[in-house]
C-alpha cells in the first residue's frame, strides 16, 4: 500500500481502514528489523517535533523520544504547566503557534476533541499519544506483538479483562477490522462508548469477527489465544469511579487459574502500567506466557513507524 499517512494526522483507529492499520503494523515490524540489525535510519534528520504530555507516561513518552532520536528528529518536550494554555490561552492559538515552530506535534491529553482541535488548526501532523477515546500508538504495538507471537490475526480469539476506556476502544476497533474474535469480560452495567461500539459492530459485520461482552469470565477465557489485561480504571477518572470499578472488576482478575482456562499456548498481554494484585497477579505478569516486555518494546518500533509515515 502507498503511504497514505504522509502529512496527515494519526488520531484514532476508528478513522483508519484495514489497509492503513496493516500498513503501519508491517512498517513497524520493518523498523524493528532495522533496529535489531543496527541499521541506521535517520530518515527525518533536521525535523523538530513538539511533545506535549498532559498526563504521566513512561512508555509512550520515552518510546517517542527514542524513536525520534533514531530517525534524526529533535524533540522539544513541552510542560503544560509552564505554558500559557494553563492560564487560559485558547487551544486554537496555542496550536497555530506550535505549528509555526515545529514539524509536528505528539500529544497525550484528556478529551479526544482536544487532538481533533489541534488537528483542525495545525497544518503539520498531529499524533495522538492517548486520549480518553483511543490509544492508537498502543494499538499498533499490540498488533505487532500478536503478529510476532501468533503469525496472523484472523481466527484468533482474545479475552479482554479491564476497564472499557481508550485501550479497550482501540482494541475493539482493530479486532473488528482484522477478524479477531474479541470476548470482553466485564461486570454488568459497564457500557462501552456508543460511537466506538457502533463503528466496531459495523466493521465486525464486514470482517466476520465476533465481538461480545460477557459477565462470564470462564466463557471469555475459553479457547482464547490472547489474554489481554488492562487496568480496572484509568487516569482522569474520579476517586468515586475508581472505587466502584475496583470492586466491580474483582471477579475478573487474571490469575494463573484464569490463564489455564485459555489455550495452553495463550499469551498474556498488558499495555502497562499494571496494578499487580488488582487486574492481574504478579505470577501472571512474570509467567512464561507473558509477553508484556516485548509488547512494551514494540511501543518504540511502532511509534517510529507512525512518525516516519506521517512526517512531511
Ligand atoms: N501503555 C502506555 O501508554 O504506557 P504509559 O502510560 O507509560 O505511556
TrEMBL record:
Keywords: Membrane, Transferase, Transmembrane, Transmembrane helix. It comes from the Bacteria. It holds the Pfam family OTCace. Its EC number is 2.1.3.3. The chain crosses the membrane at residues 164-184. Residues 155-309 form the Aspartate/ornithine carbamoyltransferase Asp/Orn-binding domain. GO terms for biological process: citrulline biosynthetic process; L-arginine biosynthetic process via ornithine. One of its GO terms (molecular function) is amino acid binding. It is an enzyme of class 2 (transferase). Belongs to the aspartate/ornithine carbamoyltransferase superfamily. NCBIfam families: orni_carb_tr, PRK00779.1. PANTHER family: ORNITHINE CARBAMOYLTRANSFERASE, MITOCHONDRIAL, ORNITHINE TRANSCARBAMYLASE, MITOCHONDRIAL. This is Ornithine carbamoyltransferase.
Amino acid at each position: 500500500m502507498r503511504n497514505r499517512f504522509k502529512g496527515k494526522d494519526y488520531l484514532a483507529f476508528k478513522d483508519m481502514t484495514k489497509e492503513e492499520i496493516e500498513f503501519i503494523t508491517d512498517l513497524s515490524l520493518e523498523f524493528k528489523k532495522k533496529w535489531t540489525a543496527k541499521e541506521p535510519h535517520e530518515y527525518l534528520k533536521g525535523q523538530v517535533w513538539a511533545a506535549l504530555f498532559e498526563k504521566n507516561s513512561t512508555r509512550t513518552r520515552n518510546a517517542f523520544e527514542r524513536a525520534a532520536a533514531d530517525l534524526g528528529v529533535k524533540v522539544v518536550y513541552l510542560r503544560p504547566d509552564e505554558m500559557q494554555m494553563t492560564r487560559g490561552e485558547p487551544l486554537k492559538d496555542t496550536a497555530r503557534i506550535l505549528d509555526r515552530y515545529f514539524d509536528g506535534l505528539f500529544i497525550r491529553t484528556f478529551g479526544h476533541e482536544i487532538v481533533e482541535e489541534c488537528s483542525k488548526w495545525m497544518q503539520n501532523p498531529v499524533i495522538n499519544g492517548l486520549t480518553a477515546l483511543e490509544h492508537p500508538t498502543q494499538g499498533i504495538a499490540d498488533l505487532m506483538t500478536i503478529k510476532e507471537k501468533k503469525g496472523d490475526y484472523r481466527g484468533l480469539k482474545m479475552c479482554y479483562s479491564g476497564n472499557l476506556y481508550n485501550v479497550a476502544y482501540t482494541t475493539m476497533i482493530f479486532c473488528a477490522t482484522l477478524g479477531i474474535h474479541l470476548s470482553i469480560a466485564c461486570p454488568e452495567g459497564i457500557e462501552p462508548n456508543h460511537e466506538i461500539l457502533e463503528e466496531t459492530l459495523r466493521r465486525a459485520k464486514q470482517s466476520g469477527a465476533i465481538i461480545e461482552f460477557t459477565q462470564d469470565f470462564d466463557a471469555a477465557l475459553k479457547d482464547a489465544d490472547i489474554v489481554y489485561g488492562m487496568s480496572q480504571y484509568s487516569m482522569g477518572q474520579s476517586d468515586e469511579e475508581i472505587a466502584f470499578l475496583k470492586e466491580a472488576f474483582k471477579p475478573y482478575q487474571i490469575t494463573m487459574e484464569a490463564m489455564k482456562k485459555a489455550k495452553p499456548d495463550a499469551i498474556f498481554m498488558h499495555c502497562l502500567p499494571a496494578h499487580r494484585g488488582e487486574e492481574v497477579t504478579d505470577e501472571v505478569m512474570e509467567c512464561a506466557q507473558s509477553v508484556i516486555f516485548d509488547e512494551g518494546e514494540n511501543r518504540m518500533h511502532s511509534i517510529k513507524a507512525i512518525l516516519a509515515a506521517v512526517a512531511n
